[in-house]
Amino acid sequence: MLVINKQTSENLGKVLILTAIAFWFYRNNLNSMNYLIVLVIIISAISAILMKTKLFTKKEEQKFRRTKVISLLIAIMIMLIATTATIVINFVDEIGADSRKYDSPQYQDEKFNNLNDTSVSTGNFFEVLAEYLVFDPSRTPNSVIPTEKFEIQELTGDDVSITWFGHSTIIIQSPAYNILIDPLFGQEGTGPLFFGPAPFDYDNTYEIEDLPPIDIILISHDHYDHLDMKTIVQFEGSQFLTPLGVKPHLELWGIPSEDISEFDWYEGVNIRSDLQITLTPSQHFSGRSINEDDTLWGSWVIKLGSKSIFFGGDGGYSAEFKTIGDLYGPFDIAIVEAGQYNEAWSQIHMFPSETVQASIDLNSTMVMPIHNSKYELSLHPWDEPLIEVTAEAAKRNHSVATPVIGQSFILGEEIPTYHWWNDVAPGQESFLKSNKLVGLLIPAEIIAGVIIIRNSRLSSGIEEE
What we know:
Metallo-beta-lactamase, Chain A; 465 residues; alpha/beta; seven-stranded mixed β-sheet; 2 domains; 11 helices; 34% helix; single chain; globular
């Protein structure tokens, strides 16, 4: 009975110390370390159980038996991950179709390439990884984002309206056409099997049933946050315009081949005399599984009646914006990415100042920053892109449209410029983070745990004597 009490006492001390460490990690935004601690505890518990089975009761030192058990568990985990990944890649339709080869100036060495050499920096990989491990509450709104309920527009004459649904989803409406770009609806996380990040909370949700009949859907590239199978399969009868290589994905998901048109850069189609759409370059990449760059990516030029619209998709800043502006400008609006940037991938995503410069290069009347306010995909504060784009545009005397998510506005009329992101409440820190008494309990728990363990071991030594 005495041995049990001593062991229980020592375990209590360890629990106190471990709890204190977990609270310290939590209060210092290092909750990822707590996940690691939980994983270590689970592996240790399973190994302790296995060491008592017949498989691991041979007469050898305990440390060697423990090493064998832990090695076996790690090997099993690796096999499970590899098996799961193989099953997902080969049997889950959301991953998309197999790669194909294309006769295109952009397709070389069995992949598509940018006009300029690009790369993702690996020099500061561990620095970026360390930043991701530290939770920063400013990366998410931490409260509901104010939005507007979407209303189908009653348009006449040459009216063209723009509506943003967050991230990169846009609807362009006119009396004759409804054009949807990079549609992504629903409340699930983006990515296969819902593994991707969950969307921020909006006070209005947007469903496909809310939309008018969609005539044309444009896809900029096949990344999960721009090409969502769950959304795509709900559009029946719409015409899809995509970069090269995206068509097989849509066919796999049941979209009729005759409803899909693929384009290379600087190729397009005249829908009618009042609508011309052209795929233009962007500096980005593609891929939905282990094969990167097996489909083309791009931006779109839309000539709708008397209005000219540029949609940039994803991409880093390049001189090609000036070329596109010279060929197809001026534009009434440039809808350009501003969000999810980082120095490590600066060649494939733009910083806010580059977003404004791209609009100027395009010879656009105004810029509308997108690719923000829906997902946490990078390390910057969630509202930083909007703050910095509006500040940079003011310095450059360039107009910037900042509609509330769900708000529609008509090109040529008043530009929405309200800084709606300032209305987002910062959110409240949890009691365990903000309470000073909890902070004081952490060192007290550690001291108490150390004392309990020390006294338990001292009493054990006395008993042995």
